[in-house]
Automatic annotation (TrEMBL), chain A:
Domain ChrB C-terminal: 3-134
InterPro entries: ChrB_C
Organism of origin: Rubrobacter marinus
Top-level taxon in the UniProt lineage: Bacteria
Name of the protein in its database record: Chromate resistance protein
UniProtKB/TrEMBL annotation, chain B:
Name of the protein in its database record: Chromate resistance protein
Residue ranges of domain ChrB N-terminal in the record: 28-164
InterPro entries: ChrB_N
Lineage start: Bacteria, Bacillati, Actinomycetota, Rubrobacteria, Rubrobacterales
Source species of the chain: Rubrobacter marinus
Pfam families, per database record: ChrB_N
Domain of life, per lineage: Bacteria
Length: 140, 180
């Protein structure tokens, strides 16, 4: 299936893409566009204003995924990751997760060093794999 | 490509022009608070400006959406000041707007350091220092034009931490020595 979002991904979009590939659609293909008017037809949009899978109220898109896909929302480790993504994305310290600042710096650095969003996702995937493995050590 | 242009400070600016219904006031407060956290500057009521980069663009896009969802109107513009003088004036205003907090951090860190040199409740002081360090990181994030006081504040925090951490460990060591 094709998934599409805005170019210049940061923490919320890279985390959503990881979530999609790892838990929803292992064959997922991603497109990136500049203006929403250029979004490919028939693609599932995420982290785009007005899309089903986007910011909702004070929630970031990753949090919306966990609401829309209930089985993901039941995963305690993903719920923890969602708190970290929220704090890193919205910078409002809602959950006070100390990992957020470090993750923000790492993903921003990777973004600066990557030629495009496809390359960026190849790098950020293992970061979220690592975070998931680490946090699930002690998940209930 | 787009974003690379905006990474050099002062290349391009983003201007959020918005209007919100007077009531309920919580939306106006939320938007104002978010703009303040981003370090935006109001050119006038309902017109806030920020230097353009990936982060400011994204945050302002969400803010625009938020204003619309709250029943207001918001448009987001890319802009460049018309003259060099105007641009420099704007950059200087941004730099100046960070100075107050940096100056407070320098002062508070100095006070903490002097207190730490006298000994006392190092846990409490460390908590106080952590809060200052958090304030510093938040300020640095919105310090788009590198205020000259940033380095001063960073140095004051490093100094306070050195005294607090070294002081705590040497006092701890002395404590163990006294037992024998």
């Amino acid at each position: 299936m094709r998934w599409a979002t805005r170019r210049g991904c940061h923490v919320d979009r890279t985390a959503c893409a990881w979530l999609v590939t790892r838990f929803l659609d292992p064959e997922a293909e991603f497109s990136f566009f500049g203006d929403p008017a250029e979004a490919p037809e028939g693609a599932e949009l995420f982290d785009v204003a007005g899309a089903r899978l986007s910011h909702r109220g004070d929630d970031c898109s990753f949090e919306t995924f966990l609401v829309e896909y209930e089985h993901l929302g039941r995963d305690a480790t993903l719920r923890e990751i969602a708190e970290i993504i929220h704090d890193a994305d919205l910078l409002d310290e809602r959950y006070g997760r100390p990992e957020a600042e470090g993750l923000d710096a790492i993903i921003r650095g990777m973004q600066l060093a990557s030629p495009d969003d496809h390359a960026l996702l190849r790098q950020t995937g293992p970061v979220f794999d690592g975070l998931y493995a680490y946090l699930s050590r002690e998940a209930p | 490509m787009d974003s690379a242009v905006g990474r050099g400070a002062g290349a391009r600016w983003l201007l959020l022009v918005y209007r919100l219904p007077r009531e309920p006031s919580r939306h106006r407060v939320a938007v104002w608070r978010k703009l303040k956290a981003l370090g935006a500057m109001y050119l006038q009521d309902g017109a806030a400006v920020l230097p353009e980069n990936d982060l400011t663009r994204e945050q302002l896009e969400w803010l625009q959406l938020r204003v619309r969802e709250a029943g207001g109107e918001a448009t987001l513009w890319e802009a460049t000041p018309n003259t060099t003088a105007e641009r420099e004036g704007l950059e200087e205003a941004f730099r100046a707007s960070r100075e107050e907090v940096y100056a407070e951090i320098v002062e508070a860190a100095g006070r903490l350091r002097r207190k730490a040199e006298l000994g006392g409740d190092s846990d409490g002081m460390l908590e106080e220092l952590k809060k200052l360090e958090r304030d510093f990181r938040a300020e640095r994030r919105r310090d788009y034009f590198r205020s000259p006081r940033r380095e001063e504040a960073a140095e004051a925090l490093r100094g306070a931490r050195r005294v607090l951490v070294d002081g705590a460990s040497s006092r701890g060591g002395a404590g163990v020595g006294e037992v024998s």
